[in-house]
């Protein structure tokens, strides 16, 4: 379904052409002066030089030649040459009725759907998720959902950190604590136990203990490095320990990500790419892409057009060890072979931008990915506390993600039970939904690349630009619709008619922007645009609600039009919060 702004542009383009000007000058945008008009065209200004004519005269010529006006209502020229446009009220109603009748509100699906992979999450196993993992999960999940909404085939991959030095540390510490375990008996030939020799809580204590020891004891560190080497070279007992670590960790990770309503299609990790590394390095050497520089194997990625130095992509250290760049390139080898993606989107801390630039260039230069495959980096900023520093607990430590979610849920529970009497089970369920909206909207409403302050008091407020405010608006609409049907009215088949008030038209105009906002959010990988949109839509609804006696309207046709409009607004808001990764309760 075309965007409403496209229809306006088509009508204006025909007028430019008829008046003897280039049709491309008819570009229409949302007005930056909504007090004067709803849309504007600055094409007359742009064409003044080419046609040696005053912009105002060009604008008047265009308006005089405007004969097709199904969508354009009022139109006028304003000096020095702006063309101000208001949408026809009946055309707005017709467009919204078409949206209601169309599948998925008429969203413009991709003509040529792509196979897209979204790499997000990236936690290390054997460690608890903390607030530092929040942004990647929330932003990545939303980007994945937006791409699916636009008709693409999308796979989300968690890309676990499961193969590095931390594994050697855990194995070393476990061996010191429980040397009698069969994993450490080189002569053992039986079946290893099915049950892990540790719980997730024990595992999460083992790793930091081992890490601290390695920093203080060189012999311990060497043992851990050797254990890592043995694991990566197929040591049977260590591989069995690694499998236990993975099983216990992934079960805990899934529980925590479920609490965030974040789902991964693939649970692959660095380990999945290891088998591709030897052949990849051999090919890169044989084809002349990789060379030794100061003992390390590197790929030069500097380009002539660069204005600053881009260091080579290092793929093997002087001791033969692999690096992140090695694993990321081998992962692209595996992804290209198994899935053949048209696009791979990486969601990670923006401080990793240089690393991904090196990897992307190396992948393209060496043919690891075809030239037509798009590699995209979406870097995010830091989530800070009110002091402007990375978000911490009151004690100054890094907050576990499950504790943050629980704290927000408890805050919402207090607000819900303070406002009215409600059964415990319903209050808890509602608090969980609203708390998740507070967290996700609080994050996603900020442009991903920017740092932001995680303000619990503001994010959990039912007023202002917050998740709870959006949900409260949806619940308010549900309540009105519920009362309408409770009076014995049917809501199916109702039609929206031309707006009778400025408030109603403003709401209709916001609803009509749904398709263009979703398209822009996908093209720019910008969930914050959806947040800004639904905040504007919620505000437009609440203004309309306070100005209009919806259920008390005596004119049946008007009332039916109001109800039809509310149904559409509710569906738009619900579609938007779905791609943001949360949902609304029935009541609050």
Number of helices: 20
- Strands of the widest sheet, in order across it, are 1-2-4-3
Given this structure, which CATH class of the domain at 401-580 is correct? Mainly Alpha
Strand content: 5-15%
Distance between the termini: 34 Å
Rg result: 29 Å
Give the SSE layout:
Elements: H1 4-18, E1 28-30, E2 39-41, H2 43-51, H3 55-64, E3 72-78, E4 82-87, H4 89-101, E5 115-119, H5 134-149, E6 153-157, H6 165-177, H7 200-216, H8 218-232, H9 236-259, H10 277-286, E7 290-293, E8 296-299, E9 313-316, H11 324-338, E10 343-349, H12 353-365, E11 374-380, E12 383-384, H13 401-419, H14 424-444, E13 452-453, H15 456-459, H16 467-486, H17 502-512, H18 514-523, H19 527-547, H20 556-580
Parallel strand pairs: 5-6, 5-10, 10-11, 12-13
Antiparallel strand pairs: 1-2, 2-4, 3-4, 7-8, 8-9
Helix pairs in contact: 1-3, 2-3, 4-17, 6-7, 6-8, 7-8, 8-9, 11-12, 13-14, 16-19, 16-20, 17-19, 18-19, 19-20
């Amino acid at each position: 379904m075309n965007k409403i702004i496209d229809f306006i542009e088509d009508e204006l383009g025909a007028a430019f052409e008829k008046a003897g000007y280039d049709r491309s000058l008819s570009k229409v945008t949302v007005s930056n002066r909504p007090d004067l008009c709803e849309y504007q065209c600055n094409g007359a200004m742009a064409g003044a030089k080419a046609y040696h004519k005053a912009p105002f005269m060009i604008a008047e010529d265009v308006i005089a030649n405007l004969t097709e006006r199904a969508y354009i209502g009022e139109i006028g020229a304003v000096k020095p040459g702006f063309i101000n446009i208001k949408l026809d009220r009946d055309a707005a109603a017709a467009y919204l009725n078409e949206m209601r009748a169309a599948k998925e509100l008429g969203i413009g699906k991709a003509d040529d759907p792509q196979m897209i992979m979204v790499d997000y999450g990236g936690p290390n196993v054997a460690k608890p998720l903390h607030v530092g993992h929040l942004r990647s999960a929330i932003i990545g999940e939303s980007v994945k959902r937006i791409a699916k909404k636009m008709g693409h085939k999308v796979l989300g991959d968690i890309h676990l950190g499961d193969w590095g030095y931390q594994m050697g540390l855990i194995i070393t510490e476990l061996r010191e604590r429980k040397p009698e375990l069969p994993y450490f008996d080189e002569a053992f030939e039986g079946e290893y136990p099915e049950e892990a020799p540790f719980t997730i809580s024990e595992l999460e204590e083992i790793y930091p203990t081992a890490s601290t020891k390695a920093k203080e004891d060189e012999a311990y560190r060497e043992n851990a490095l050797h254990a890592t080497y043995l694991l990566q070279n197929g040591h049977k007992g260590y591989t069995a320990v690694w499998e236990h670590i993975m099983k216990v960790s992934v079960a805990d990770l899934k529980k925590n990500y479920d609490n965030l309503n974040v789902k991964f299609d693939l649970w692959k990790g660095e380990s999945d790419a290891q088998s591709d590394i030897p052949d990849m390095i051999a090919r890169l050497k044989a084809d002349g892409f990789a060379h030794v520089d100061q003992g390390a194997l590197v790929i030069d990625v500097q380009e002539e057009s660069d204005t600053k130095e881009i260091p080579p992509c290092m793929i093997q250290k002087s001791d033969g060890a692999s690096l992140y760049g090695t694993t990321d390139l081998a992962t692209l080898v595996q992804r290209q072979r198994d899935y053949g993606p048209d696009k791979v989107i990486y969601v990670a801390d923006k401080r990793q931008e240089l690393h991904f630039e090196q990897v992307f260039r190396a992948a393209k230069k060496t043919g690891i990915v075809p030239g037509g495959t798009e590699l995209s980096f979406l870097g995010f900023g830091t989530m800070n506390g009110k002091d402007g520093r990375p978000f911490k607990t009151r004690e100054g430590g890094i907050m576990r993600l499950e504790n943050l979610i629980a704290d927000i849920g408890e805050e919402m529970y207090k607000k819900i039970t303070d406002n009215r009497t409600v059964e415990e089970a319903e209050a808890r369920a509602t608090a969980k939904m609203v708390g998740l909206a507070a967290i996700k909207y609080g994050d996603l409403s900020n442009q991903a690349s920017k740092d932001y302050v995680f303000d619990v008091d503001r994010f959990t407020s039912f007023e202002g630009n917050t998740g709870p405010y959006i949900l409260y608006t949806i619940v308010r609409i549900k309540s009105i619709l519920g009362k309408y049907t409770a009076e014995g009215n049917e809501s199916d088949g109702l039609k929206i008619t031309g707006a009778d008030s400025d408030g109603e038209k403003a709401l209709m105009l916001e609803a009509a922007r749904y398709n263009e906002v979703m398209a822009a959010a996908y093209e720019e990988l910008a969930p914050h645009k959806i947040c800004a949109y639904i905040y504007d839509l919620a505000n437009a609804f609440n203004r309309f609600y306070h100005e209009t006696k919806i259920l008390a309207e005596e004119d049946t046709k008007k009332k039916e039009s109001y109800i039809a409009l509310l149904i559409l607004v509710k569906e738009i808001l619900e579609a938007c919060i779905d791609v943001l990764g949360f949902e609304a309760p029935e009541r609050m």
